[in-house]
Specification:
By secondary structure, this protein is mainly beta. It is 12% helix and 45% strand.
């Protein structure tokens, strides 16, 4: 066999040259890009040339599975043979050995068998040429030795500089797995890592429907819609990878709406393939798994009667008895189940406590809990790698696959990978991850409450999320991480749609509030985890405080800042009011408050977790109730409002996904805006802020996205 490495990224295979960086093969006549699975199979053949490779060996080393269907392997072998066929030489041979496997060899070309033009155009590998090859190898070794000596001498001086550089992202190639145009989300891979189940909503679905659940076989990349009713949402898998758990919601004519938790068996022709577990009651369940017994585990909201607070429970399907496993803090959103470790019957979950999120592993009875990591932001997905016995998750801030070994109980070195803007990332191993591309666009507009006129800001390829009113028709917004090369981190924009960067606020900064009367802005610094009050013109720092990581809960007004956060020692939720002039602060109890804003110079308007609205005097701590959550719920005909409130000029505003409401003096609600009348799209309100007579609104619009597989 004549197969040579001519460069770290190139391998000669007869008359083909394989580029391992681009996964392409080329010769003087053509160039072909190999599918990732074909490239992976070819590399394994190259590394194990001239010996018989069994089907089981291919399944374990190419697919990383203990079993792969024969038809799947046959298809890959057929496609690989077809790609390597060429008129320039006898094609590389993948020989079949009956009932044994395959071997990979490249026979030397016979000049009599080749076309005349091929003999002069490509790959003359005669014996006479080999001495020159040996000279070339010797010369190359000499050059490499000289380079090595130079590097050895220079190394002490360069080591410090190299350590200062951030780790380089590993080279991951990606391919699109999904073929249907629509919105893909909430990826759940089966514990055996063969199947991927996900939610899918086509462009033709109505705005208020959940869509359908689709299944993809990751070995064949074939996807199909499951025979699960429309308006269902996937919740998890059984430990044996045979059942999918889901939530089904629907309305039937002349009957009560249907809402129940169910499970669906993948195997066809099975009795009771789709089974109902129990109807919806109490708080919403957001994940369900099992360990192959008559018990399931799930995370459910509504712990301690707080609608947003989640805990993890075990449920016996025979006795219909629920037992709580975890005991979360009542500050934050509590516990959310992400994945399971089937072999040891352990649970992987997150715990939100005020301004931090912990990634934890616990036993089925909750008696032993291990903390893996802590972040100032939510984690949406984690996974279990059964081969390496590691817990995997993706850190969006650092773009790294994080790994924790459950064998050594230590965090392993992360793998940095450059991925495009994502909505959801699910690592499968240290060299493979699944993701959904970012399927949303942000735009903003401003309503003049005096005239009713609206100004829309929607520059192409920029995600305008207006965060601050600067005065005189000027606004500031923070460009999210999903930006193109022409946009900036913090941008000033005027009512004539002219964009200009606020250059002194570089990457890592965002403006989260402003006080135009005092010409001050409230700035968040992501890296140092601090919030700063700055002068608008000079950007001089006037005051620095810890950042609570929640933009809508730190408010600036009349040289004072009100911040809703957790106490550093007791972890109790508090409101800290800081005077910028004398740098003094006072602390107020917050209890179940989830949103605040300045109502006037001495009062804050507050929104509680059960949606009670009240005024809080920051000097006397007197509380003046305005409207109860029950009355608010009744006024909105059962619609829920978001956990954010804003006020200006004595008016109080709140919103849900589609509408903005104003609380009148008689505690009735008035609809200020229906987003469908302004934005002709499948959109929802993302952010709301009132300043004087201006109402700043950012909305998010959904469009189709894709599922991608990144691997190296």
């Amino acid at each position: 066999m004549d197969l040579e490495t001519t460069h770290p990224n190139y391998i000669d295979i007869g008359c083909w040259q394989l580029n391992t960086a681009t996964q392409t093969i080329s010769n003087t006549q053509e160039s072909k890009e190999l599918e990732p699975l074909l490239f992976k199979a070819l590399m394994y053949f190259i590394q194990n040339q001239n010996r018989i490779i069994t089907r089981q060996e291919l399944a374990q080393n190419v697919w990383h599975l203990s079993f792969v269907d024969d038809n799947t392997i046959n298809r890959v072998i057929f496609e690989l043979r077809k790609q390597l066929a060429s008129d320039l030489q006898p094609k590389p041979v993948i020989k079949t050995h009956y009932r044994k496997g395959y071997s990979f060899t490249v026979p030397l070309a016979d000049a009599a068998e080749l076309p005349p033009e091929a003999e002069t155009a490509v790959c003359k590998k005669s014996k006479a040429s080999k001495p020159y090859k040996y000279y070339l190898i010797a010369f190359t070794c000499f050059v490499l030795a000289a380079i090595a000596i130079t590097l050895y001498v220079e190394m002490p001086r360069q080591t410090t500089e190299r350590n200062r550089q951030p780790p380089q992202a590993a080279t991951f190639n990606n391919q699109i797995l999904s073929w249907y145009r629509g919105h893909h989300g909430k990826l759940y891979n089966s514990p055996d890592q063969r199947y991927l189940a996900y939610s899918f909503k086509s462009a033709t679905n109505e705005a208020n429907t959940l869509g359908e659940i689709r299944l993809m076989d990751l070995t064949t990349q074939h996807e199909k819609a499951l025979s699960i009713p429309i308006n269902s949402s996937i919740l998890g898998w059984s430990a044996d990878s045979n059942w999918i758990y889901y939530l089904h919601q629907a309305e039937r004519d002349s009957e009560q709406p249907v809402c129940e938790y169910r499970k669906h068996r993948l195997s066809p022709n099975t009795v009771n393939r789709d089974q109902a577990l129990f109807p919806c009651s109490g708080g919403a369940i957001n994940a369900i798994f099992d360990f192959g017994q008559a018990q399931i585990v799930y995370s459910r909201r509504g712990y301690l009667g707080i609608p947003s607070l989640g805990a993890i429970y075990r449920y016996d399907l025979n006795t219909q008895k629920e037992t709580r496993i975890t005991t979360p803090s009542n500050h934050g959103f509590g516990d959310r189940l992400l994945a399971i470790i089937p072999d040891t019957q352990q649970l992987i979950f997150t715990r939100n406590i005020g301004d931090k999120v912990e990634l934890l592993v616990t036993t089925l009875n909750g008696h032993k809990t291990l903390k893996l990591a802590e972040y100032p932001h939510l984690l949406w997905a984690a996974n279990w790698d059964p081969k390496q016995k590691t817990v995997l998750w993706f850190d969006h801030d650092s773009s790294e696959i994080k790994r924790y070994s459950m064998q050594t109980l230590t965090e392993l070195p992360p793998v940095r990978v450059a991925v495009e803007p994502t909505s959801y990332v699910l690592p499968m191993s240290k060299s493979q991850l699944l993701m959904t591309t970012y399927g949303y666009d942000h735009d903003s507009y401003v309503i003049d409450l005096k005239t009713g006129e609206s100004t829309t800001f929607a520059k192409p390829k920029i995600y305008e999320v207006i965060m601050a009113y600067l005065g005189e028709g000027e606004f500031a917004y923070t460009d999210s991480v999903f930006k193109d090369t022409e946009s900036y981190t913090v941008i000033r924009i005027d009512q004539h749609h002219r964009y200009s960067p606020i250059t002194q606020l570089s990457a890592g900064y965002s403006i989260i509030d402003s006080d135009p009367a005092e010409q001050q802005i409230l700035v968040k610094q992501t890296v140092n985890k601090v919030a700063q009050v700055r002068a608008l013109g000079s950007l001089d720092i006037l005051y620095t405080m810890p950042d609570n990581e929640k933009n809508g809960d730190t408010r600036l007004h009349n040289n004072r800042v009100a911040q809703l956060r957790a106490h550093e020692i007791t972890d109790d939720k508090i409101i800290e009011v800081i005077s910028i002039r004398d740098q003094k602060s006072t602390t107020l109890p917050a209890r179940n408050i989830v949103g605040i804003d300045w109502y006037d110079d001495t009062q804050l308007v507050t929104l509680s977790s059960n949606r009670d609205i009240a005024l809080l005097n920051v000097i006397t701590t007197e509380v003046t109730p305005l409207i109860s959550g029950e009355a608010l719920h009744h006024s909105l005909n059962g619609e829920k409002v978001r956990p954010m409130i804003t006020a200006a000029n004595g008016d109080i505003y709140l919103y849900n996904r589609q509408s903005v409401f104003k609380l009148n003096d008689d505690n009735t609600l008035e609809t200020v805006l229906d987003i469908k009348s302004v934005v002709n799209a499948d959109s929802s309100i993302y952010y709301l802020d009132a300043h004087g007579n201006k109402l700043l609104i950012s909305y998010i619009t959904r469009y189709h996205n894709e599922i991608k597989l990144y691997q190296r």
